[in-house]
Every structure is written in C-alpha cells, then in structure tokens.
Amino acid sequence: MDLNVWRAFVTVCRVGSLSAAAAELNHTQSAVSRQIAGLERQLGVPLMERHARGVRPTPAGEVFRRHALATLTEADRAVRAVRDVRDGVADRPLAIGATPSLAAGIVPEAVRSLLNQAGPVRWSLLPALSAQLHNRVIAGDLDIAVVTDAPPGLAADPRVERRFLGLDEMVVVLPAGHPQAGRGPIPIQALADQIWVEDNEGSAALLRQHAARAGVTAHIDLTAADLPGKLALVATGHAIALIPGALTRALRADVVTVTLVDPPTRGLYTITPHRDPHPCATALHDQLVAAQSPRPR
Predict the structure, then answer these.
(1) pLDDT at position 120, please?
(2) How many Å apart are CA 190 and CA 239, to the nearest integer?
(3) Are the beta carbons of 114 and 283 closer than 8 angstroms?
C-alpha cells in the first residue's frame, strides 16, 4: 500500500475535513477523496462517514487509523535515522516528554546530569499532560515520558514499561507577605477561608480530596490556563494554590511555599516503549530518581 495514501487518511481523521486535509497536504480535495475511496476499495470496508461538521472515521476506520499512525511514525523515524547516518550524525536523538511541573522542575536537572555522564546527546523536551504523553509514547513520538498518577491516574498498558521514581508531596504556594508565609506544616483548615486557583483537574481533585478529609471545603474560584498563569495569580495576591513539591526549585521570587500537615501526594513514573527503547532511557530514569530524592537540609 502507498504510505502517502495512509498519510492522507490519517490527516483527514485528525482535521475532520477533506478540504482542510487537502490544504494541509497541498492536494486538491478531489485527489484526497480518490485516495480515501481507493483505500476503502483495497480494504473492502468503509473507512469514513460524514456528519454535520465534516467527516470522521467509522469503527473500522478508527482501527486502521491507529495502526496507520504507528506505521507512519516508524517510517518517519526510519527516514530520519538514514539521513542522520548520511549526514554523519549517527547518534539517535532522545525525545523526552514530561508534565509541565516536572518539565520545569526535576527534568532539566536530570538531563544535565545525563549529559555530564554520557557526553553530548541530542535531545528534545515536550511538556504535556500524562494521558497525552502516554499516547505520544505509544505513537513512537517520545522515547521516555515523565508522568504522574494524579487523577485520573495512569492507564495500564502492556505496550509500555512503567517505572516508579518516587512520591511527590504537594505544597501550598502563597504570595510573599501572606500571613501564613514562613510557617508550617499547617493544617488545611488554616487556609479554609482562602480563594484557590487551579490550572488542571488533577491538581484540583487532589486539593478537594485533601480538604474533604479534613472536613473543610477548598474554594477554587479561579482557573488558570497553565502553571505560569496560576503562579501569576498567586504572586499578585488574587489566590493561593496547591502545586507539586517538585516545582519548588523553579518558582518565581515573589511567591513562597508552605507545607501541609499530612499533605496529598502523587506518584512519579517514567514510561518507555517496550519496543526499540532508546539507549539513554534507563540512564535518564536513574538521573530522575536522583533529582527527585530529598536533599539534605
């Protein structure tokens, strides 16, 4: 089968429109339609169906899309590997994914230690949520991802190897000058009258669960788009927030942290594909364990 046709089909599934896919691929819409129709004839089953806003894969089409995406990803990696050899660059880049807090926290330190130990390694870093990173590892886009089991948790998947890094204690971040700054550990009840801000449902769920166990309610009245926005609202005195302990080493200077009595925790893990693991993945895992380990005070 022609991989260009497979690529056209995967693109149509992703954008949900024949015309949008044609524009992205620099084809005509009729050409893309003929490619999909030819693929359906080869497979003997409809792969696409129309709906009010465009097209979507049929159940058979969705099965084919997943396998086609994996095949195309491997094909692209094969082409890149050959070009690297042609250009005299034999080392394989290390594609790393991490949740936003870990990408700003322990991952840079671990990568620096890896480079000091292993020498020059080409690498890239993609921040995303744990579920998205899991999918990117499965698709072959990432060699290793650093994820958490914060709600909704991690899916069990035989296609990846999951390795435990450690437990991360959540802390509260306050604006500098807050009455509770410099204290701690403090019970969550001491912050029951505060306005909280959250940027993702996983962290919000940990906060709500912790507050409920203590018999109080955390008033999450503000929502931020991301961690920098969350910290900006704290720094300017609009709210306080629950953040991962792993992020404290990368905080801005105008906020402070305080620990909680019996704080909520989240497990940190690396996930790597069982197939064709990167030679540096295990070494990076070991450096992440070291970076996560508590430092002497």
Answers:
(1) 83
(2) 15
(3) yes
